[in-house]
Every structure is written in structure tokens, then in C-alpha cells.
Design a protein that fits this description.
Blueprint: H1 5-13, H2 16-22, E1 24-27, H3 28-42, E2 46-48, H4 52-65, E3 73-76, H5 94-98, H6 103-120, E4 124-125, H7 149-164, E5 177-181, E6 195-196, H8 200-216, E7 221-224, E8 228-229, E9 232-233, H9 238-248, E10 254-256, H10 261-267, H11 275-285, E11 290-291, H12 295-305, H13 311-327, H14 346-358, E12 361-365, E13 380-384, H15 391-395, H16 419-430, E14 433-437, H17 444-451, H18 457-465, H19 470-486, E15 491-497, H20 518-526, E16 532-537, H21 545-550, E17 553-556, H22 564-572, E18 628-636, E19 641-648, E20 654-664, E21 675-684, E22 689-695, E23 702-704, E24 710-712, E25 716-722, E26 730-736
Parallel strand pairs: 1-2, 1-11, 2-3, 3-4, 5-7, 6-8, 7-10, 13-14, 13-15, 15-16, 16-17
Antiparallel strand pairs: 8-9, 12-17, 18-19, 19-22, 20-21, 20-25, 23-24, 25-26
The structure holds 1-deoxynojirimycin.
Residues 48, 77, 126, 179, 258-259, 505 line the site of 1-deoxynojirimycin (NOJ).
């Protein structure tokens, strides 16, 4: 790329100190405003975690009082809506929006989020996560688009387009940030930020594709991962950052480290024993902006002045940062304008509702118990369960509802609709009585602390001393209350799952079973012989085979955002026809993970002696109130286009997600049993048929060789097309290249 004379002129005037400051991103929530003002005067490149008047003041100081008046930039984790603002529109979490398999809708979500973030003045969101969640124990599973590289890449591009719009200088455009580069989700044992025992060949094959698409889509910033690859921390990984991202993929934006990762080189990963070395290593590896490690400033200046680090590294990083600032038009408008009055406006709420509706995944519907309604002769519904009326569980990650004080969480502002509220609203129209009972807690301790301040201390101690027995006795009254409420109901709507305490950084799980007494609650309710509709409101797939067995219907709603409860209720009452599909597989039990669909074939069927081979629910699965028939599958080798006829063979209109997988029959290195290579959504009226065409990318037919090159090897490929990743759902045609 040609150098910009405006930027070059600024760089030529910058001192080493000013360059070091430009490379720094300062966490206002940690250091406070007094210190932040001083950094602004030094010309710091960016701040994170600051909103409102404080942000405006820092913007003013940077662009008016710093020596070169270089505008600063503000970053925030607006990852499913501008979710750290109490008034903003909250969308389904990233995993939940992936259930829509809807590129246009995800782009719309990105655009609405960007508009609200920009209306606050902020120019940068740290989103999307393009890491894959192939082991659901990982705490950040909910923040991903699921387990598949193709789906993650497609939806990643959509949301990036939505955030960045046509031109970064537009009032409603904000910078996207593809994170965390790379293979962060592969940490050993799904322990967040741990070492990743994989090779660069594997990285290119499995984890690079969504990031490559992000570069090609013009994603302006990337974030380095916390973890390490085969012993080399990503922050220090020249091969990954410079070699792969910059030189090979041609990334031309700027690269920010993750939180305090330069310090982590010393105090956690122990590859450097002082700040000078750590700062030099980070700069040489290709990081342009350093998040939160304030020690970087003095250390990097010293490195340059003592001749240990060439100043050209700083010039290069600053050039990357200033070029993006220039494209944002910051010298003209140091803060974004957005659209005044748009934060949480009705039009944005409509998009949140549409997203929640499209992300509902129906997984079981025995004897078509759903949808409920007058014709089913339902007079009384018992809504039971810890997540039926818990807005925080429904909202999910990064929605702390206040800012910038970490650890202080408040209830969000209305409007939002929980499942209980949604069911009540629709039941009223059908003249159905609704009763509610909490049932048991997800995280028992928190529940008691908040709700029963009188609970004696010794009970707390009892819990601490005896994890297994105490909760049972303590929660029995709640469970029996729920059973009484449900006894004479015609149907139970049972909302189970996890909550935000079981998700996110520091919250990996060793056990994917339902927490607390939720399984016991199901066992007790089962004895009532009242049909059970289980709704999973959770951050991730849970291992719930017994719950599925005992339930007549199962809906997976994950974290549906502000209208999640309304959308689920609409699905239950048939006001919408569910069309969500799983972006991630459900394990039968924790020990079965990894259970992602596109594994390599083994010799012994991948079986455990004490667990079935197949997942509880597979990638791509999802039912509806109609059924679809596939026929006439063809593949055109010249145009790489699949055509197939899909018929809605039921009585209500619906939307099918047509999925295309490829199985490379023989190749010189092993390949997955199948890989998603394309998908399209098709709306079909009752009885209607349509021919769907899906053009595949050439890359779908390639393999990555041991020398890390990607090639097409001649041979046979099965093209599998149908309703889900399960073989029984797929038609097949074989093509030879
Ligand atoms: C750490 C997280 O890993 C990253 O995803 C986030 O964007 C930054 N902190 C900033 O909050």
C-alpha cells in the first residue's frame, strides 16, 4: 500500500516517546480518570472501557492538548449489541445469532450495533470472535459462531460488513476487530488462554479460513490471542503475526494485543524475564497496539534508545494505527456522531426481535406436542425453572449493564421479555392460565445470597463443606413447590441451563452436565406425568441426554437477548415456525468432547465403551413445524455449483437451511469426514418446491499439505446436500476432479 503523505508527515514529527504512546491502549476502568488524562496529554493511541463524559474529555485532551494533536480512539466490547450500555439494544449472543445461519440478518445486527456504538461516540468494537468452539467446556464458547470454520467465516464477514459499512468515515461505521488470532479456542483441555498443541499446518487447515475471509472483507483491526502455539505465545509469534497475517494474508489494518499480554510474556508464559525484552519481542512479532500493559511505554522507549530495537518497528506500527485513524476521519471528527436518539430505538428492537425469532432451534417434538394452542386443549401451563424469568441468564456474556466499573452488575433496563413474560402474554390471548415456580437455582449460592438474606450462615458453610448433599436438602422445598405448581397443569414449560457465572473468561467448565439441582428438578417433575417442554437457556451445549429423554419437546434458545423470551414463547404457541439450526454439536456426556462433526476418521469408529459414538444433537440440526424433502441433486463441475430441489411437504410455511458438505474421498493427508462448504436459506410456503443453487468456493476442494501449501489434489469428492450434517439427512453425488 502507498504511504499516505499526511501520515508520513506526522510520523516524521513524532518523538520516540510519542510513538510509544501511540502504540498504547490504556484501560480507563483500571487506572481511573486522573491517570487517563495524563496519558491523553502524552498522545496515547487508544483508550478502552470508558463511556460518556469521561470519554469526551479524553477525546478533547488528545486532539487539542497533546503536542501533535493526534486524535485518540476508543474501543469497547460491543459483541452482541452495544451491550455494556444499559439502554442499548441487546441481540442474541454470537453463538445464538449463529443459529440463524442468516448472513443478511447478522449483517443487520452488525450495522445496528455499530450505529449505537457510534452514537455513543465510540469508533471501535472488539468483535467478532472468529475462533472455533470445538470443545464446549471452553468458557468462551458462547462468544463464537460455533464449531465450524465455514459458518464462522461467512457470518464473520457479514458482521464485519455490518460494523464497518461502506466507508469507515461514515457516521455509523465502527472498526471491527477479528479476534483472537489464532487458534485460541484450541487451548489444551479447553482451559482459556492455555497452550495449543497444534501445528501450523493444522492452523492453516482449520483455523485460518475465517480470519482469511475477515482480511479479504477489509476488517480494519485484528486482536492477538492470549494463548500460545506449541510453546510460542501468540504475542511473541512472529511467524503467525508477521508471516501469516501480515505478509501472507495481506492484512493492512492494525493489530492490537489482548489484555496485558505483554506482561503475560513475563509473569504467566515466562518467555521473557523483563519488560524491555517483552516489549521488544511484542513489537518485533508484529503487534501494533499494546492493550493495558502500561509498562510497555518506558520499556520500549528504552529499547529504542539503547539500540536494542530499531525505531522502524515503531514507525511501522504507528503507520498502521494512524492510517486507520485517517480512514475514520478522526482529524475532522474525533468522536463518532452516530444517529442521535438511535440507542435502543424501536427500529433496532425490531431487529433484536427478528434475530431472537430466527435463532430458536427446535430439537425434539414428540407427537407434535408443539405448537400449543386451543386445539391442544391446554387450559393451564406451569412455567418452571431457574431461567424462565432471569434476564441475566437470557442476556448472556458481556452484558454487565453498567460501565466502567468491573464487577458491579445491575439489572438491565426495560424493555425486555423473559420466557415467563412471553408465555403469559400469549397465553392470555388463548385464555390459558399460567402458573410459575422457580424450581431450583443454577448457581445455588448466588440465589440464596440474593434472595434469602436470612438464610443462616451455617447453611452456607454446610454447602461449602459438602458440595453434594447440602444443596439437595436446601433446594428440596423449591423443587416440591414447583411440583405442586405443576401437578394439575396440562403442560410444563421448563427453562433450564446455565447463567453468566458459567460462561466467559475464567469460567471454563470441567463438567457439562446441568449444574445445581436441575436434573433432580426434572426427575421430580417427570413423576407428575405432565408433558414437559424443555427450553435450554444457556451459553453453550450441555450434556442433557436424560432431560431430552424425559421431555416431550426440547428447544435450544441459548442466550436470545432482550426478546429471547418472547421469541421462544412465540415458537411454543406456533406464532413463528422455528428455523434455527445448531452451529455446534451437543455431547451426550462431557467425556465425549470433542464431538464436533468434522473430525478425521479413526480406526475404531470413535466409540467409547460407555458412551455412544454420535452426539446428542449434531451440527446443523433443527426441526420445524413442517418437513422438507430433497430431490434432484446435481453438481456442475465447471461452475462449482450445486443445485437441489427442496419441497415443503408440510402444512405451514417455513424456512429451510440447505446445507452442502464435501467429503474428499482420498488425499495425501487426512481430511475430515465432511466439511461444510455452502448453505442457503430458502423460504417455502406449504406444499411449495424451489430449486436452490449454491456456488461453492474452490477452497472447499483443497487440502493443506505437510509443507503448509494449499492445493487441489485430483480424485473423487462426495458432495452431500441436505438438512443437517447427519448422513441420514444428506443426498449424495460424487464428482471427480
Ligand atoms: C480480553 C478478551 O480476551 C478480549 O476478547 C476483549 O476484547 C478484551 N479483553 C477487551 O476487553
Amino acid at each position: 500500500m502507498e504511504n499516505n503523505p499526511f501520515i508520513e508527515e506526522i510520523i516524521s514529527q513524532m518523538t520516540v516517546e510519542e510513538k510509544a504512546a501511540q502504540m498504547l491502549q490504556v484501560p480507563v476502568s483500571v487506572i481511573g480518570m486522573d491517570a487517563a488524562r495524563e496519558w491523553a496529554k502524552k498522545g496515547v493511541g487508544s483508550f478502552l472501557n470508558v463511556l460518556g463524559d469521561d470519554m469526551k474529555e479524553l477525546a478533547e485532551i488528545s486532539s487539542k492538548e497533546s503536542r501533535l494533536k493526534i486524535p485518540t480512539i476508543f474501543g469497547i466490547d460491543a459483541v452482541h449489541g452495544h451491550c455494556l450500555n444499559r439502554e442499548a439494544t441487546i441481540f442474541p449472543s454470537q453463538l445464538t445469532m449463529a443459529c440463524t445461519w442468516n448472513r443478511d440478518l447478522v449483517e443487520k445486527i452488525g450495522h445496528v450495533t455499530a450505529t449505537e456504538v457510534a452514537t455513543e461516540g465510540i469508533q471501535w468494537t472488539f468483535s467478532p470472535i472468529l475462533c472455533l468452539a470445538r470443545d464446549a467446556r471452553w468458557g468462551r464458547t458462547n462468544e463464537t459462531f460455533g464449531e465450524d470454520k465455514f459458518l464462522a467465516g461467512e457470518l464473520g464477514v457479514s458482521i464485519i460488513k455490518g460494523y464497518q459499512g461502506e466507508d469507515l468515515g461514515d457516521d455509523t461505521a465502527v472498526l471491527a476487530c477479528a479476534k483472537h488470532f489464532i487458534a485460541y479456542g484450541e487451548a489444551t483441555g479447553a482451559r482459556d488462554s492455555y497452550d495449543t498443541e497444534i501445528t501450523m499446518r493444522k492452523i492453516r487447515d482449520e483455523f485460518l479460513p475465517p480470519f482469511k475471509k475477515a482480511v479479504d472483507a477489509g476488517c480494519a483491526t485484528f486482536m492477538t490471542a492470549y494463548g500460545s502455539i506449541d510453546g510460542t505465545p501468540l504475542t511473541a509469534n512472529k511467524k503467525a503475526l508477521r508471516g501469516l497475517l501480515r505478509d501472507e494474508l495481506g492484512f493492512d489494518g492494525f493489530l492490537v494485543t489482548d489484555w496485558d499480554t505483554v506482561n503475560a510474556l513475563i509473569n504467566r508464559q515466562r518467555v521473557c524475564d523483563n519488560h524491555g525484552d517483552a516489549s521488544r519481542v511484542a513489537a518485533e512479532a508484529g503487534n501494533d497496539m499494546i492493550m493495558s500493559t502500561l509498562e510497555f511505554y518506558d520499556a520500549v522507549i528504552e529499547q529504542v534508545k539503547s539500540g536494542k530495537l530499531e525505531e522502524s518497528y515503531l514507525d511501522e506500527a504507528v503507520r498502521h494505527i494512524l492510517t486507520i485513524k485517517y480512514r475514520l476521519n478522526l482529524w475532522e471528527k474525533p468522536l463518532k456522531q452516530g444517529v442521535p436518539g438511535s440507542i435502543g430505538c424501536d427500529e433496532h428492537h425490531e431487529v433484536a426481535l427478528e434475530s431472537a425469532r430466527e435463532s430458536v432451534v427446535l430439537l425434539k417434538n414428540k407427537n407434535n406436542i408443539l405448537p400449543l394452542g386451543k386445539n391442544k386443549d391446554i387450559k393451564k401451563i406451569a412455567v418452571i425453572g431457574p431461567n424462565a424469568d432471569d434476564i441475566r441468564a437470557q442476556y448472556g456474556d458481556w452484558t454487565y449493564f453498567t460501565h466502567p466499573v468491573p464487577g458491579i452488575e445491575k439489572e438491565p433496563q426495560r424493555p425486555y421479555v423473559t420466557l415467563l413474560e412471553g408465555v403469559k402474554e400469549l397465553a392470555q390471548g388463548e385464555d390459558i392460565e399460567v402458573v410459575y415456580s422457580y424450581g431450583c437455582s443454577v448457581n445455588r449460592r448466588e440465589y440464596y445470597k440474593g434472595n434469602f438474606p436470612g438464610i443462616p450462615e451455617f447453611m452456607e458453610q454446610c454447602y461449602a463443606d459438602n458440595d453434594h448433599d447440602a444443596p439437595f436438602y436446601e433446594e428440596m422445598p423449591l423443587i416440591s413447590e414447583a411440583a405442586s405448581a405443576a401437578r394439575d397443569a396440562d403442560v410444563i414449560v421448563l427453562a433450564l441451563g446455565d447463567n453468566y457465572n458459567c460462561a466467559g473468561e475464567y469460567n471454563d467448565r470441567a463438567d457439562l452436565n446441568l449444574s445445581g439441582m436441575q436434573e433432580a428438578l426434572v426427575r421430580v417433575l417427570e413423576t407428575l406425568h405432565v408433558p414437559i417442554i424443555t427450553v435450554l437457556i444457556s451459553s453453550k451445549p450441555l450434556a442433557i441426554p436424560q432431560v431430552v429423554k424425559k421431555s416431550d419437546a426440547v428447544i435450544c434458545a441459548f442466550n436470545g437477548g432482550m426478546y429471547g423470551g418472547k421469541a421462544i414463547a412465540e415458537a411454543i404457541f406456533g406464532k413463528i415456525n422455528p428455523c434455527g439450526r445448531l452451529p455446534i454439536s451437543f455431547p451426550v456426556m462431557t467425556g465425549q468432547v470433542p464431538v464436533y462433526y468434522n473430525q478425521f476418521p479413526g480406526w475404531h469408529e470413535g466409540r467409547y465403551v460407555d458412551c455412544p459414538k454420535d452426539p446428542l444433537f449434531a451440527f446443523g440440526e433443527g426441526l420445524s413445524y413442517t418437513r422438507y424433502e430433497y430431490s434432484d441433486l446435481k453438481f456442475n463441475k465447471d461452475t462449482l455449483t450445486v443445485t437441489v430441489t427442496v419441497k415443503n411437504a408440510g402444512e405451514v410455511k417455513g424456512t429451510e437451511v440447505v446445507q452442502v458438505y464435501i467429503d474428499d474421498k482420498f488425499s495425501s493427508v487426512m481430511t475430515a469426514v465432511k466439511n461444510l462448504a455452502g448453505f442457503e436459506r430458502v423460504e417455502l410456503g406449504a406444499g411449495e418446491s424451489k430449486t436452490v443453487s449454491i456456488k461453492l468456493e474452490e477452497e472447499a476442494f483443497t487440502v493443506v499439505l505437510p509443507d503448509e501449501t494449499r492445493v487441489i489434489e485430483p480424485g473423487d469428492f462426495d458432495i452431500l446436500v441436505g438438512h443437517s450434517s447427519k448422513n441420514e439427512d444428506l443426498l449424495k453425488v460424487t464428482v471427480t476432479f
